[in-house]
């Protein structure tokens, strides 16, 4: 699991740099199906399975090569798809359009719901078939067929998708490296007094990357990468645009948010390991049916399957009326709710474990019901619903357009770190408590939970989760959301390639003569008594002439909102 989520970075990087997100999803989907097929073959053929040897692991030689190669393909394929597919779905919505912005938030909710429904089938039907009916290879075979059908459906939808082909110049690694290198090279230069003097591209230039990001005052050192060189030619390795610098700032601001959610995913790893072990020591019967221990995760999945539609159809519209936010609440608020619930889930898990162990000590033949685990699983399922979707939408919305796959992979990266950190915690805590306890045994030793102190480990994670939430609050309040567009109170920019520029009435002496102002040129024409004046803002193209503009001394000032641009007669400066 940890490797799969870690390898999602590869899928994100490839789809942002070399090929489209659709093509990336199809290629890595084929690799995933191939991995599942190899696992199925080895699970079916007795000749490809190792003989029992009485040791912890009995596999070696060519059988080990095939086993780990097929698992590697499975991890690479599934990880690559996770890195590209969510961003491909997000690309189908224009988040600048109010209606599509609402649909984008809905998309991530339905993405979670569809994944949850698939997991429900996996932990019930496939688990029952493989463990109770002893059809081990059938579980892998069904998964391979279902995955193949899924990617076939995805491929058939290609004519309807909005696809974006990346350019090598758009490579996230290259753009990030350029900013860091140029900022270091310009470290001895002084920043200009105004950010307007930093280098920025025009929307009409050929290398325009679909968005211009407004300047922010955080990480001012990186702004030195946008200082216009005086003696050298402007190249990507001598000066970077403000937008490019802001892209690096955005990714830097995301990192504390990313690491603040690792502890929650460490808690998730416990529910997929120790809680399943707890289930083995509990009464798993429902009437005459014996629930497989591996099917215990169905509890949070059922909660999520019910709560996602409730959240989408009832909570979001209600919250939207109050907050006016397309998603009801902001992405970081949603993540925060999930972090609080995960701490509560761990605290309850410790209480349930105390009850289970006490009952086992009193009468081992009458264990408590499996459904006591539904409290910790149910609360954590709600926490996961809030946090996972919140992170996916947050990393997608905030990321620069050319880095959305890589950024979305950060969600899976937190899961990967959580799984690996879980292993570290178990080993470290066992080593420490083994030395300090009177019994010379760790909190979690061996397979017998009745003689362990799993409840203390759960409470340790609950306390750590509370401290982590305080850390998250600090970084969430510090984070500045990306701004791409000017304030709505400013005049609206018009695309001159598709629309005519409206001209406001401008007081002029010729008005008394009955001259039609709508036919006058926007810029003052050359006249005997005036010098020719031209006005242009390289960042927004042609501008509206604000009411009250004058022609005086050969200088025409064209105003847009609070800023102004001067003509060639005045000193030309780089514009924001």
Tell me about this structure.
The chain has helices at 2-6, 8-17, 21-44, 61-90, 98-132, 136-156, 172-185, 242-260, 262-271, 274-280, 298-323, 331-362, 374-398, 404-436, 454-478, and strands at 285-286, 289-290, 551-552, 555-556, 558-560, 563-565. The protein has 576 residues and is mainly alpha-helical. The chain folds into 3 domains: 1-166, Up-down Bundle (Growth Hormone, Chain: A), CATH 1.20.1250.20; 168-202 and 211-245, no CATH class; 250-479, MFS general substrate transporter like domains (Growth Hormone, Chain: A), CATH 1.20.1250.20. Strands 1-2 form a two-stranded antiparallel sheet. A two-stranded antiparallel ribbon has the order 3-4. Residues 488-576 are annotated as: Disordered. The chain crosses the membrane at residues 26-45, 65-89, 110-130, 136-157, 254-274, 294-314, 335-354, 374-396, 408-429, 456-475.
Summarize the structure.
The protein has 576 residues and is mostly helical.
Helix content: 40-55%
The CATH homologous superfamily name of the largest domain equals: MFS general substrate transporter like domains
Percentage of residues in strands: under 5%
Q: What does the average pLDDT come to? A: 80
- The whole-angstrom Rg is 30 Å
Provide the structure class. mainly alpha
Biased composition (Polar residues): 563-576
Subcellular location: Membrane
Pfam families: PTR2
InterPro entries: MFS_trans_sf, POT_fam
């Amino acid at each position: 699991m940890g490797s799969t989520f870690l390898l999602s970075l590869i899928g994100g990087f490839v789809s942002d740099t070399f090929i489209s997100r659709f093509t990336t999803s199809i290629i890595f989907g084929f690799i995933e199906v191939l991995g599942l097929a190899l696992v199925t073959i080895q699970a079916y053929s007795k000749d490809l399975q190792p003989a029992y040897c009485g040791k912890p692991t009995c596999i070696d030689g060519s059988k080990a090569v095939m086993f780990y190669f097929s698992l590697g393909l499975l991890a690479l394929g599934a990880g690559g798809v996770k890195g590209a597919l969510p961003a491909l779905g997000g690309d189908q919505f224009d988040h600048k359009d109010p209606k599509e912005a609402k649909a984008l938030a809905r998309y991530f909710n339905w993405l979670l719901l569809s994944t949850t429904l698939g997991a429900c089938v996996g932990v019930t039907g496939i688990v029952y078939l493989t463990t109770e009916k002893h059809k081990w290879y059938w579980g892998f075979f069904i998964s391979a067929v279902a995955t193949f059908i899924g990617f076939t459906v995805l491929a058939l939808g290609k004519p309807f998708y909005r696809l974006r082909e990346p350019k090598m110049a758009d490579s996230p690694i290259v753009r990030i490296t350029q900013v860091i290198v140029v900022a270091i090279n310009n470290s001895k230069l002084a920043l200009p007094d105004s950010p307007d003097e930093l280098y920025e591209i025009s929307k009409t230039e050929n290398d325009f990357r679909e968005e211009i990001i407004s300047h922010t005052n955080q990480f001012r050192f990186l702004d030195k990468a946008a200082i216009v060189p005086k003696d050298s030619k402007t190249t990507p390795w001598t000066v970077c645009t403000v937008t490019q610098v802001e892209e690096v700032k955005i990714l830097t601001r995301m990192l504390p948010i990313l690491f603040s959610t690792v502890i929650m995913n460490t808690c998730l790893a416990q529910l997929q390991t120790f809680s399943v072990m707890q289930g083995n020591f509990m009464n798993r019967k429902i009437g005459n049916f014996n629930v497989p221990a591996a099917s215990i995760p169905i509890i949070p999945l059922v909660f999520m399957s019910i709560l996602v539609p409730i959240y989408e159809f009832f909570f979001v519209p209600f919250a939207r009326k109050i907050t006016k936010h397309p998603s009801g609440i902001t992405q970081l608020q949603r993540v925060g709710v999930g972090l609080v619930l995960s701490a509560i889930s761990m605290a309850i898990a410790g209480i349930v474990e105390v009850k289970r162990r006490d009952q086992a000590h009193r009468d081992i033949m009458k264990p408590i019901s499996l459904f006591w685990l539904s409290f910790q699983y149910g609360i954590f399922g709600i926490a996961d619903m809030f946090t996972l979707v919140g992170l996916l939408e947050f990393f997608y919305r905030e990321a620069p357009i050319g880095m959305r796959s890589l950024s979305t992979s950060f969600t899976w990266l937190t899961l990967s770190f959580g799984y690996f950190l879980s292993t570290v915690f178990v080993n470290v805590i066992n080593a420490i408590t083994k030395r300090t306890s009177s019994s010379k045994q760790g909190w979690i030793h061996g397979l017998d939970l009745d003689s362990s102190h799993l409840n203390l480990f759960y409470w340790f994670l609950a306390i750590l989760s509370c401290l982590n939430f305080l850390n998250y609050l600090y970084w969430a309040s510090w984070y500045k959301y990306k701004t791409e567009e000017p304030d709505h109170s400013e005049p609206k920019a018009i695309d001159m390639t598709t629309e005519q520029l409206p001209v406001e009435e401008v007081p002029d002496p010729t008005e008394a003569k009955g001259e039609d102002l709508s036919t006058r040129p926007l810029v003052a024409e050359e006249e005997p008594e005036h010098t020719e004046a031209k006005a242009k803002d390289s960042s927004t193209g042609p501008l509206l002439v604000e009411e009250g503009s004058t022609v005086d001394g050969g200088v025409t000032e064209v105003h847009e909102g609070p800023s102004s641009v001067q003509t060639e007669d005045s000193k030309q400066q780089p514009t924001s």
